[in-house]
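Researcher: Here's a chain I'd like modeled. Treat it as a single chain, no partners, no ligands.
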Amino acid sequence: MNEAVNGRGRPLPLSPARLRPTQSKDASELLEIAVSDDGGVRLVRLTGELDMAGVNDFDRLLGADWADEVATVVLDLRGLTFIDSSGLRALIMADQRVREGGGRFVVVRGSDRVNQVMEMTGVAQRMELVDEPPAG
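Model: Modeled as a single isolated chain. Structure tokens:
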């Protein structure tokens, strides 16, 4: 019996892979960003999922030069339900931008799922993490 092989001479699976159709995101899964200022503190609350679909909005928001306006940026992840590698990269870049501008970047821990991803990837060790937003 002839067996189908791939380009490396390895056998191909006998049954075709089953692909699920791409599902559109529920509105509750989309990233929502709320920003408020209190003196020299800018509070950024994220709700939903910080993934490829929402990371550009987050980057644009934090891409503004805030060094002259705020001394501290507090990123509240308590409403975040999911974060992927693009979201982790956005957090790292935001932290770097704020610190390079002489500011303080504080992250309020999110759900267990989000915290676990940040811990496993080492991102949590790079940032100032707190359980509650600092008093303005």
